[in-house]
Amino acid sequence: MVSDARSRRREEILQAAFVEFCEKGYDRAKIEEIAHRAGIGKSTVYEYFPSKAELLTATGDFVLGQIFQDVESLLSTDRPVRQALADYLEYVSSMMGSIGASFLHIVGDMSVTQIVHNLCKRYLVTITACLERVLQAAQDRGEISTDINVRTASQMIVTMPNPPFVRLVRQDHLRDSIERLVDLLFAGLAPR
Question: Is 34 contained in some domain?
């Protein structure tokens, strides 16, 4: 019972911290404001997170955990690969459109460069591994060419939805742009 309440409180702090960091960046974010957003005192935040840097790291881990859950379900190996990739690209593009600018605000704070680098690396490694599993399963089913190196293809796909890409597809209908991109991608992945 106590651990459930403690877990809920921790999550409330992380959600409040995410909003504060996104709105103000790391340097201008205040623990007092995070505590206020979470409806608790400043000392309670420090009971959970001894420093603002640790709070940022935990906030990043919390957000990445949610993203990883969503991506895992989108990239299920039993789904047709074309649909899975289109859904993944749409999800990541939408996510970048909604939180991407806020995240870039955090990235701009040089004092947290290493924290952000570690979070980005974790994202890339985890999502690339997930994409590799999906592409390997698709290769095994004959959906894509066996000549394709699934690791290289996964690395390419994971880096596709970037801020300039998101801005570009926002000018058009997102799903239509994603479908055209997947068509182009599959022209190169198709079995020969």
Answer: no
Instruction: State both tokens at 83.
Output: 């649909």
Cβ-Cβ contacts under 8 Å for 41 (sequence gap 6 or more): 35
Report how far residue 120's alpha carbon sits from residue 131's, in angstroms, rounded to the nearest whole number: 16
Number of domains in the chain: 1
- Residues 45-72 have pLDDT tens digits of 999 999 999 999 999 899 888 989 999 9
Q: Which residues contact 87 (CB under 8 A, 6 or more apart)?
A: 74
Where does residue 109 fall: left (phi above 0), alpha (psi -120 to 50 degrees), or beta otherwise?
Answer: beta
3-state secondary structure (DSSP) of residue 171 = coil
Token pair recorded at residue 129: 């591994």
- Using CA atoms, how far apart are residues 5 and 106, in angstroms rounded to an integer? 29
| Domain that residue 104 falls in | 51-189
- Asked, for residue 22, whether it belongs to a domain, the answer is no
Q: Check: pTM over 0.70? Answer yes or no.
A: yes
> How distant, in Å, are the alpha carbons of 75, 105, 119 from that of 29?
35, 11, 19
User: Tokens for 111?
Assistant: 């004092």
CATH number at residue 136: 1.10.357
